Structure formats: structure tokens, C-alpha cells
């Protein structure tokens, strides 16, 4: 069996957790391959709602092995808080596997993230302040700390000393903060050794062996396409590779093993943090979308910026990810609008762009070109087949599919597991 990749097609918060959870019972491994605890997935199972931040959504599927891959940056305090909270609710985390090559978020990374963002003022990126960016910077600067370093105290201390040699200069002389003590950092990290040791493995070897045995591996991306460090709306992006290409580097699975790329796209558009957003609504419609869709960050609680569906970025996501199937979510949120605008292109300085402008400046000044589709008033949350939807809702979905560059495999009409219309199988 092949590997499947699941990514977000917009700026995140599209409902990837629900999509992963739906597949969790049909796959053997679910792998988080990028990001850290700077994003969250919300999964609703019956009357229970689970907010996941660092753990893969597959943790909620008993027959599935959840894996945190090498491309993830891990805050161990958050990891064990999340594990403890789930186990207190009766969810076993005993099968969780953590890559020995994943990088660790140290306390000084969190400190630098927060003070640097405040220092930027109006030029701030809108980070969550959880140390994600500085940890990825350490990784690329080759001064990072990996999970495997926990098991050799001498190496761990040398690495922390090397990192703090520069970082303390910055903290003290640039940001006027106290220097971080090496002993305090080493002591904190070593306090997790006994608990973390049983879950650590060579996850690349583990996953490739599983594929060789004919098992199915789902690679679950954090954040989304427009937040990818290479292909997103730079510099207002995350610090990792959130697109399908990152699934290979973040898990140690070769690209020839990937058979399907599934992208999750919301029936409208949202974004958290700073950066351009062509279809953003700063009016009553935007407030109404936020209220109806409960658009507040799973991890941060920040209100999400809301706007109409943008087919330009959907086509872009289809292209850079090689999307084979889209999952459309939150169609029910649009109930009640008489007419629903859909962005089909941009206009910049009198020029029409049917695809993403190459220039950040052009994208920043992009004015959406809208087509208006008929809405519906009927409650669609009880629909279980496409034919159960009102004709105008069916037409809306069909129009989005034609505009977005890949077929729709399923449609979400509510937050629960059961509130999903399957149009075609997501499995090969």
C-alpha cells in the first residue's frame, strides 16, 4: 500500500484534523511531519471535542500508530501535558512514536520568539510565540538539539553551551533581558529522559518497513500551503515545509511511495496572524462568518480573519502540492446567505491575474474578482449524501470544484465525524 499525504490548501484551520480522523480508522500509521505546537486540530467525536496541538490526529484512532516525524519541532512540556490530558479522558497514547531526529524546543527558543516579535512592532509576523521559528532557525544553523541528544548528557550540554554562547549576547545586549543559564536548560531537558525514552525510534525505518509490509501510512501536515516557508505568502509564513514535498523530508519516506495527495479546503477562507488576504471581509459579513464558523484558533484562541472562497489560491495549492483530491469543509457555515461571492481571479493595477501573482507586492494589492452564486436557507447538517443538499448548495460545490483544479472527494456539513458526504474514496 502507498503513503497518503494530507495538507491544508489555504492558510490553515481548514479542518485537517477531522479529515485525518476520518481516515484514521482505515490506515495503520498517521505521521505529523512538520510544525510544532503552533497549530491545532479540533476533532469532534459524538459529544466529545478534542483539541490537539502537537500530537497527530491519529492518536484518537485505537488501531492506528501515531508518529511524530523528524520534521517536527517538539516542546516536551507541551507533549506530555497533551498526553496526560488525553489519557485522563480515557484515550491511550501508548502507541505514540517519536523520531530520534526531531528537534527540541528549548526554553531560550520560546523567550527569543516572544521578545523578537515584540521588538518588530508593526513589522511583526504574527507568530504564536511558542519558539517554533527560532528552533527551526537553530536547525538550519546546525546548532539545534535533537531528541537523541537527551540520551548523552555530555553532548547535550555541549550543544546547549554552543547555542547560548550567541543567544545570551542577543538577549542581554539587544533585548535587555537576563542571560539564560546552561545548567537550567540542561536540567529541564534531562527531566524528560525517562519518560521519553520508550517512545523514541528511527521513524524513517519504521515507516518504510510498514509500507514494505503493505500497510498504509497517512502523512498529516500542520499549518497549510499558504503558510509554507517556500511556497507561502512569505514572510508571513510558518518556519517549516507545510506542502506535500515537506511530507517526504519530514518523515523520511521517498516521493515514489506517495500515491495520493489530499488537500483540505474550507468553503470560505480564513487566516490567523499578519499578512495579505485578498478576500478578507472587514464588515458584518466577516463577523457573521466568524460567528457561524466558530473561527477562533484551536491553539491560541485568536479570532480568525474571514473572507470568501478564493479559487486562485485553491488552484495554486493544487499545483504546488500535486493534489489528487480535495476535501471541502464547513459548507454548513454558508447557510443563510442569499448570494455567495467566489473569487475567481485578481485585479492588480488594471491587470487581471487568473493565477497567483509572482510578486509579493502584487499579491498584497490584489483586488478579488468575484462571481456570485445563489445561496440556500435550508439546514444541511443532517445531509448524508450529495443529493440531500439543496440544489443551490450542490451548484455551489460544483462551481468550486470546477474552479479549484482537482476533484472534491468529500464535503463537510458539520463538525462531527458523521457529518461528512463522501463522493469518492480517499484511499487508493
CATH level 4 superfamily of the largest domain: Adenylosuccinate Synthetase, subunit A, domain 1
CATH level-two architecture of the largest domain: 3-Layer(aba) Sandwich
What's the alpha carbon Rg, rounded to whole Å? 22 Å
Class inferred from helices and paired strands: alpha/beta
Shape: globular
Global mean pLDDT: 92
- What is CATH's topology name of the largest domain? Adenylosuccinate Synthetase, Chain A, domain 1
Largest sheet: 10 strands, mixed
Q: How many β strands by DSSP? A: 20
- List low-confidence stretches: none
Query: What is the class of the largest domain in the CATH system?
Result: Alpha Beta
Helix content: 25-40%
Oligomer description: single chain
Distance between the termini: 8 Å
Placed side by side, the strands forming the largest sheet appear as 9-7-5-2-10-1-11-15-19-20
Counted by DSSP, the helix tally is: 13
Describe the structure.
- The protein is α/β, with parallel strands linked by helices and 428 residues long.
- The chain folds into three domains: 3-100 and 201-262, Adenylosuccinate Synthetase, Chain A, domain 1 (3-Layer(aba) Sandwich); 103-194, Orthogonal Bundle (Adenylosuccinate Synthetase, subunit A, domain 2), CATH 1.10.300.10; 266-422, Alpha-Beta Complex (Adenylosuccinate Synthetase, Chain A, domain 3), CATH 3.90.170.10.
- The protein has helices at 16-24, 76-88, 107-120, 132-140, 153-174, 182-190, 193-196, 203-212, 244-249, 284-293, 311-321, 360-364, 391-404, and strands at residues 3-8, 29-32, 41-45, 48-52, 65-68, 73-74, 97-99, 103-104, 200-201, 217-220, 258-266, 269-271, 305-307, 309-310, 325-329, 339-348, 351-353, 367-374, 408-412, 420-422.
- The strands form five sheets. A ten-stranded mixed β-sheet has the order 9-7-5-2-10-1-11-15-19-20, with helices on both faces. Strands 14, 16, 17 and 18 form a four-stranded mixed β-sheet that branches. Strands 3-4 form a two-stranded antiparallel sheet.
- α5 (153-174) crosses α6.
- The protein is globular, with a radius of gyration of 22 Å.
- It starts with a strand and ends in a 6-residue tail after the last strand.
- 49% of the residues are buried.
Amino acid at each position: 500500500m502507498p503513503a497518503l499525504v494530507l495538507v491544508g490548501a489555504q492558510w490553515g484551520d481548514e479542518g485537517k484534523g477531522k479529515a485525518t480522523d476520518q481516515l484514521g480508522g482505515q490506515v495503520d500509521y498517521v505521521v505529523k511531519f512538520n510544525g510544532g505546537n503552533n497549530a491545532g486540530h479540533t476533532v469532534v467525536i459524538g459529544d466529545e471535542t478534542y483539541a490537539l496541538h502537537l500530537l497527530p490526529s491519529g492518536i484518537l484512532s485505537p488501531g492506528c500508530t501515531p508518529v511524530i516525524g523528524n520534521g517536527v519541532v517538539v516542546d516536551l512540556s507541551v507533549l506530555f501535558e497533551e498526553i496526560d490530558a488525553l489519557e485522563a479522558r480515557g484515550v491511550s497514547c501508548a502507541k505514540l512514536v517519536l523520531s530520534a531526529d526531531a528537534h527540541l524546543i528549548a526554553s531560550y527558543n520560546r523567550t527569543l520568539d516572544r521578545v523578537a516579535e515584540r521588538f518588530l512592532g508593526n513589522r511583526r509576523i504574527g507568530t504564536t510565540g511558542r519558539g517554533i521559528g527560532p528552533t527551526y532557525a537553530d536547525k538550519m544553523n546546525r546548532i539545534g538539539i535533537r531528541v537523541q541528544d537527551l540520551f548523552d548528557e555530555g553532548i547535550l550540554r555541549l550543544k546547549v553551551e554552543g547555542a547560548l554562547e550567541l543567544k545570551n549576547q542577543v538577549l542581554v545586549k539587544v533585548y535587555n533581558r537576563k542571560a539564560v543559564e546552561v545548567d537550567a536548560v540542561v536540567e529541564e531537558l534531562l527531566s524528560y529522559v525517562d519518560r521519553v525514552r520508550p517512545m523514541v525510534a528511527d521513524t524513517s525505518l519504521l515507516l518504510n518497513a510498514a509500507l514494505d509490509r503493505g500497510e498504509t501510512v497517512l502523512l498529516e501536515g500542520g499549518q497549510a500551503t499558504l503558510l509554507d516557508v517556500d511556497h507561502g505568502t512569505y514572510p508571513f509564513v510558518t518556519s517549516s515545509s507545510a506542502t506535500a514535498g515537506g511530507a517526504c523530508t519530514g518523515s523520511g519516506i521517498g516521493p515514489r511511495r506517495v500515491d495520493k495527495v489530499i488537500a483540505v479546503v474550507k468553503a470560505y477562507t480564513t487566516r490567523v496572524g499578519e499578512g495579505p488576504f485578498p478576500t478578507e471581509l472587514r464588515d458584518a459579513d466577516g463577523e457573521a462568518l466568524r460567528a457561524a464558523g466558530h473561527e477562533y484558533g484551536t491553539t491560541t484562541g485568536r479570532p480568525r480573519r474571514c473572507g470568501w472562497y478564493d479559487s486562485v489560491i485553491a488552484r495554486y495549492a493544487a499545483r504546488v502540492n500535486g493534489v489528487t483530491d480535495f476535501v471541502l469543509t464547513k459548507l454548513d457555515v454558508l447557510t443563510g446567505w442569499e448570494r455567495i461571492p467566489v473569487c475567481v481571479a485578481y485585479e492588480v493595477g488594471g491587470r487581471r491575474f487568473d493565477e497567483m501573482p509572482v510578486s509579493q507586492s502584487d499579491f498584497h494589492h490584489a483586488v478579488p474578482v468575484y462571481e456570485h452564486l445563489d445561496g440556500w436557507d435550508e439546514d444541511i447538517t443532517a445531509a448524508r449524501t450529495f443529493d440531500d443538499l439543496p440544489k443551490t448548495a450542490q451548484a455551489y460545490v460544483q462551481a468550486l470544484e470546477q474552479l479549484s483544479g482537482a476533484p472534491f472527494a468529500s464535503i463537510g456539513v458539520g463538525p462531527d465525524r458523521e457529518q461528512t458526504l463522501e463522493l469518492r474514496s480517499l484511499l487508493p
